[in-house]
Specification:
157 residues; four-stranded parallel β-sheet
């Protein structure tokens, strides 16, 4: 029943999907430098695929792990979800950085033993991140290339 409700909400939300300013440019920049890109989401596979298609970003993503790919209790924020995605991409957890806009993203990266970068272009603001530890906080994904050029790790999720 819950899954049906979530699917209905996601279908209705698809019409409001827009690319975050600069996202494509940043992902293309990373892809050109052979940085492996994946998506880990609590959205359904159908919704995530449609959202990436609507924003013309699907071709930049190597792999995805969505909430309905495995049992619900293994979905993000469970670190198992990130470990699965990293395994699919051939990346070790200590080589990866999860980029996220919600506390559950941080929790997932911590459980999996990966790095974390927070972005303010989503659900959380600077205050939400203040008590969680020391990690980069960016205004948007458009700022990732600068962070990478200044010495961040080689793999971003």
């Amino acid at each position: 029943e819950i899954e049906r409700e979530l699917a209905m909400i996601e279908r209705e939300a698809l019409d409001r999907i827009v690319e975050i300013s600069g996202a494509r440019d940043s992902l293309v920049w990373m892809r050109e430098r052979r940085i492996i890109l994946g998506v880990l989401t609590r959205a359904s596979r159908e919704y995530a695929t449609d959202a990436l298609a609507r924003t013309c970003l699907r071709d930049l993503v190597r792999e995805m792990v969505c909430r309905d790919d495995y049992p619900w209790w293994e979905a993000k924020p469970n670190g198992v979800a990130l470990l699965r995605l990293l395994s699919m991409m051939g990346v070790r957890p200590e080589e990866a950085v999860l980029v996220g806009d919600h506390r559950m993203d941080f929790e997932c990266a911590s459980q999996a033993g990966s790095g974390f970068v927070a972005v303010l272009s989503g659900y959380s603001d600077i205050q939400d991140w203040s008590d969680l530890g020391s990690f980069p906080i960016l205004d948007s994904i458009r700022d990732l290339p600068v962070l990478i050029e200044n010495g961040a790790q080689d793999s971003f999720i």
